[in-house]
């Protein structure tokens, strides 16, 4: 084939570097949910100690290793970009997903901030279209940048007439 | 964007107060329908219960429990309905249709007339006897945006037939139905001969399975849960496992076919699809329960020609509409069906009359897509063979069970391989003047024609396996139907050009082209 080969270029921006520690904390919390009860029970019930502490140790090691490695990798892989005409994101590595939402079809723009996220000064911008296929989420923007972006998106979409369906 | 937020469908504050229009009431004959219906329910539920209890301590004691219970239920429902019919009122003003109801909790519902997109009339046989009909008014909100809720339908249960027709005409902003009758354009008419496709649908095996379940359930009620198994066991001893299995399957499928025929015959009898003046499609159908769905064409974003395996083998398919605000994702919902299983030429003709010409040549997908499907099939066959062999090695199985397992494994493997090749053959995509066309699927082959102007974004996915094979899946998101329609396993370069051409300027800024 000599025809030009078309490919998608990755979106321009990486997320804020603070997303790495934020994802780490989230991952550690997720790990603690099964590990802590298993460990406590293991200490309280001596006959079953091996069967409780063993899995707890395995999950803990896997969780710690993932918490160290995965966020760094995610930070490299996940990208976003907002142009005057569209919102463009890329997530995932084994299952890559590119999402493009045109500015003219955006219905609502929300920003959310969880408690852990707040402590890192990050927030999430959620862009919703009329499709039930799910919102486009920009997770892990600097909170000031996020509110500025949300404001800009709201202005741009307000300028478009119609109900965006 | 914020049109929804400005006129939330239940926010009457912004409107001028309209007091001129009088409130109307539901039809009082509704109570007769309830009485007759509840009599049926009470008898149908009470008699088996009385027999069940009566088999133990005696019939008199059973009646002593059942009769007061039945009276209580009957009385409660009838009184509730009387109050509900008495206090429910509705009116149609210049801008809104409003309903006040609620026996225990007061409910006030008010829909903006300009947002009304469908009016659905239905009447069951009892309601028909008394000349009543239910009216369901829908605003076409899909409940996906953050500003919408699921409470955007309003049901009047029930009013008399002329009133129902009047409301339908008025709410869809057209002249009364009598005047509209002349301007109607017939797009499709059902023929009783099409019923021959009913036994081929997936309803047949489902209903057969339901019948088996029902037999066990009834046996269980009478405390003889093991009886069906014993009877089958006896038959196997007399006639051999393969005979019983074969004849049993044939018998069940026949039963399912008859039931499917009855159900679909009832649902689609006297079906017709019309275009009414003012740009509304109307589907009318039903033998016992008369159904009527009106749909504004403004809300239509395309059509889907669906060919389930059995129906496809007979050269037939059905026509579904892709429209905003029709709940199509509910299991077993046939609301979005415009034409039921019918010969393909008839379906294509109906499709063309709804959205314009639909004929086009579909581009095939790369052969690696077939390799991918065959790989899945080989995995499925390996699992099935293992599932067939292992139990025979571990245990000595009864003859019938052994025969069933072998049969299932062999048929399952053959089906897995066939469906891999067939689903590859189904894959295809194309662009027509107004639509994006994508076909996929084997057991449920579907060809969607999606209005390119109705595409509100792309979702492009590529798994690590697809990447190695140079494949990519393009998902067009839309506000209508099931929300997104995919072109799966297409060539990773060609599909991007395709998407770029389908919706100009949207993907363009994010593409790079390299000569190679």
TrEMBL record, chain A:
Naturally occurring in which organism (per UniProt): Glycomyces sambucus
The protein's name in its UniProt record: YdbS-like PH domain-containing protein
Coiled coil ranges: none
Domain YdbS-like PH, chain residue ranges per copy: 76-152
Residues spanning the membrane: 21-45, 51-74
Keywords (A to Z) from UniProt: Membrane, Transmembrane, Transmembrane helix
Annotated InterPro entries: YdbS-like_PH
Keyword field contains Magnesium: no
TrEMBL record, chain B:
Cross-referenced InterPro entries: UCP026631 (IPR014529), YdbS-like_PH (IPR005182)
Transmembrane segments: 34-53, 59-80, 200-219, 239-263, 374-394, 400-421
Pfam families, A to Z: bPH_2
Span list, region Disordered: 1-21
Record's keyword annotation contains rRNA-binding: no
YdbS-like PH domain span: 86-169, 424-491
Keywords associated with the record: Membrane, Transmembrane, Transmembrane helix
Name assigned to this protein: Putative membrane protein
Organism, as annotated: Glycomyces sambucus
């Amino acid at each position: 084939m000599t025809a030009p080969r078309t490919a998608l270029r990755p979106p321009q921006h990486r997320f804020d570097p603070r997303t790495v520690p934020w994802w780490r904390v989230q991952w550690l919390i997720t790990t603690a949910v099964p590990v802590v009860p298993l460990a406590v029970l293991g200490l309280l019930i001596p006959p079953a100690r091996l069967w409780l502490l063993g899995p707890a140790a395995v999950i803990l090691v896997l969780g710690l290793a993932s918490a160290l490695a995965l966020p760094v990798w995610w930070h490299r892989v996940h990208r976003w970009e907002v142009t005057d005409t569209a919102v463009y994101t890329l997530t995932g590595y084994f299952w890559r997903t590119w999402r493009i939402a045109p500015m003219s079809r955006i219905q609502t723009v929300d920003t959310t901030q969880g408690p852990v996220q707040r402590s890192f000064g990050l927030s999430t911008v959620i862009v919703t279209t009329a499709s039930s296929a799910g919102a486009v989420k920009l997770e892990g923007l600097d909170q000031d940048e996020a509110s500025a972006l949300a404001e800009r998106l709201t202005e741009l979409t307000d300028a478009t007439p119609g109900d965006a369906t | 964007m914020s049109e929804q937020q400005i006129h939330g469908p239940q926010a009457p504050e912004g409107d001028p107060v309209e007091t001129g229009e009088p409130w109307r009431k539901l039809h009082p004959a509704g109570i007769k329908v309830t009485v007759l219906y509840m009599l049926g329910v009470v008898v149908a539920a009470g008699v088996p219960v009385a027999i069940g209890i009566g088999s133990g301590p005696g019939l008199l004691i059973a009646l002593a429990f059942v009769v007061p219970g039945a009276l209580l239920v009957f009385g409660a429902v009838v009184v509730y309905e009387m109050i509900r019919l008495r206090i429910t009122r509705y009116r149609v003003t210049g801008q809104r249709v409003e309903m006040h109801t609620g026996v225990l909790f007061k409910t006030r519902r008010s829909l903006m007339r300009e947002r009304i997109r469908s009016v659905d009339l239905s009447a069951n046989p009892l309601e028909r006897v008394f000349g009543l009909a239910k009216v369901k008014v829908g605003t076409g909100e899909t409940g996906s945006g953050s500003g919408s809720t699921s409470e955007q339908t309003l049901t009047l249960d029930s009013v008399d037939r002329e009133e129902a027709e009047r409301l339908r005409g008025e709410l869809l902003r057209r002249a009364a139905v009598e005047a509209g009758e002349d301007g109607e354009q017939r797009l499709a008419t059902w023929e009783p001969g099409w019923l021959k496709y009913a036994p081929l649908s997936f309803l047949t095996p489902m209903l057969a399975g339901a019948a088996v379940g029902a037999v066990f359930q009834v046996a269980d009620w009478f405390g003889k849960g093991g009886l069906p198994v014993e009877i089958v066991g006896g038959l196997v001893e007399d006639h051999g496992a393969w005979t019983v299995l074969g004849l049993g399957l044939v018998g069940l499928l026949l039963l399912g076919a008859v039931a499917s025929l009855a159900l679909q015959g009832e649902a689609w009898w006297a079906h017709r699809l019309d275009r009414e003046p003012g740009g509304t499609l109307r589907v009318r159908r039903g033998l016992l329960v008369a159904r009527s769905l009106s749909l504004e064409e403004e809300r239509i974003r395309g059509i889907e020609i669906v060919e389930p395996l059995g129906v496809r083998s007979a050269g037939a398919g059905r026509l579904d509409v892709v429209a905003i605000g029709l709940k199509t994702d509910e299991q077993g919902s046939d609301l979005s069906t415009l034409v039921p299983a019918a010969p393909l030429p008839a379906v294509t003709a109906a499709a063309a009359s709804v959205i314009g010409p639909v004929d086009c040549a579909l581009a095939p997908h790369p052969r690696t897509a077939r390799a991918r499907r065959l790989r899945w099939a080989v995995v499925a066959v390996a699992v099935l063979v293992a599932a067939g062999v292992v139990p025979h090695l571990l245990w000595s199985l009864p003859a019938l069970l052994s025969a069933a397992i072998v049969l299932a494994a062999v048929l399952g493997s053959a089906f897995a391989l066939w469906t891999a090749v067939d689903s590859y053959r189904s894959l295809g995509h194309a662009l027509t003047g107004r639509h994006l066309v994508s076909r996929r699927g084997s057991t449920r082959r579907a060809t969607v024609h999606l209005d390119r102007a109705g595409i509100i974004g792309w979702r492009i996915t590529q798994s690590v396996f697809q990447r190695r094979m140079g494949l990519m899946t393009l998902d067009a998101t839309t506000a209508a139907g099931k929300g997104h329609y995919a072109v799966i396993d297409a060539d990773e370069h060609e599909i991007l050009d395709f998407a770029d051409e389908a919706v100009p300027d949207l993907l363009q800024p994010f593409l790079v082209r390299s000569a190679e």
